[in-house]
Design goal:
Elements (H helix, E strand, L loop, with lengths): L5 E5 L12 H11 L6 E5 L2 H10 L6 E4 L5 H13 L4 E5 L10 H14 L4 E5 L1 H4 L5 H7 L5 E6 L4 H9 L6 E4 L5 H6 L4 E3 L7 H12 L3 H21 L1 H11 L16 H13 L7
Parallel strand pairs: 1-2, 1-8, 2-3, 3-4, 4-5, 5-6, 6-7
């Protein structure tokens, strides 16, 4: 099996009304996710958050931390802190503030220096929808030869680009899908799994889709993708983190309010999310 293949979910940080981290709620959330067929979790790089999550995640379940920063020096420092806190790998997004200067050569130098300094394996992270930059396939092909760069997450829906990443990297390089809206197509293109917010809500369905495709049951997998689409859109492009938090609250997880400038979703959106979760049969019957 490739390193860090499978299905991961990036977990939310639950907050109390005063803005402090709900540590007890986070522990309950993680313990609940650990009863589900997720490969592991992805957490925001923050020392206290990693400490809490690591204490609840068994050592045989991988924990990945996001440590991308705008400078190489800051990224290395965040990566070393996360490694010291016990994560198994780091997910490093592309720097993006100086967009016009983010060339393939700059990306290769940045990631090479991070990987050289990292005590744990590095996963590249391309998320153009938020950064406005794209990690070129040429750069990925070069970086994939680094012994401490083991894979990447691609959060876009460009299946052609995903296919190029896969075609131009070694067989032991892991490519994870990051868009629930195109998960079926990404898995058909030979992605090795996914890192999806949707998997926090319906992990069995996401893992099940990968299993269906491995069994060659394309029609069943395609039907499952269609069933998941309304909720995937709601906790993705439409309502983002506030929508995800509201859906998790409906399912009994601790979530709390989003941090400003993000605002809680409207009561009408909560009703929509409830209907979408209910249609998938994942709400507890009262």
């Amino acid at each position: 099996m490739k390193p860090f293949s499978g299905v991961f979910t990036p977990i939310i940080t639950p907050f109390r009304g005063d803005g402090a981290i709900d540590e007890a709620g986070m522990r309950r959330n993680v313990a609940r996710w650990m009863t589900m067929p997720l490969t592991g979790l992805v957490v925001l790089e923050a020392d206290r958050v990693i400490d809490i999550v690591r204490s609840e995640v068994p050592r045989d379940r991988p924990l990945i931390a996001g440590t991308g920063r705008e400078s190489t020096t800051a990224t290395i420092a965040a990566t070393r802190r996360a490694a010291a806190a016990g994560v198994d790998a780091v997910l490093v997004r592309t720097p993006s503030f100086f967009k016009s200067q983010m060339t393939a050569e700059v990306f290769v130098r940045h990631y090479t220096e991070v990987a050289d300094a990292s005590p744990v394996p590095v996963l590249l992270y391309n998320v153009t929808m938020f950064t406005g930059v794209t990690l070129p396939a040429d750069a990925v092909a070069t970086l994939a030869s680094h012994p401490n760069i083991v894979g990447m997450k691609e959060s876009g829906s460009d299946i052609g680009l995903i296919s190029e990443y896969i075609a131009r990297t070694p067989d032991d390089f892991t490519v994870l899908a990051g868009s629930a809206a195109t998960l079926f197509h990404a898995l058909c293109a030979d992605c090795d799994g996914a890192v999806l917010a949707l998997a926090a809500l319906v992990p069995r369905e996401i893992v099940g889709m990968q299993a269906l495709l491995e069994e060659g049951r394309l029609d069943d997998a395609r039907t499952l993708q269609r069933r998941l689409m309304p909720l995937a859109r709601s906790v993705g492009a439409l309502y983002g983190v506030p929508g995800l938090k509201a859906a998790l609250e409906l399912m009994g997880f601790a979530a709390g309010p989003p941090r400003p400038p993000l605002r809680p979703v409207s009561p009408q959106t909560i009703d929509l999310l409830r209907a979408q979760l209910d249609a998938l049969g994942v709400l507890e019957k009262v």
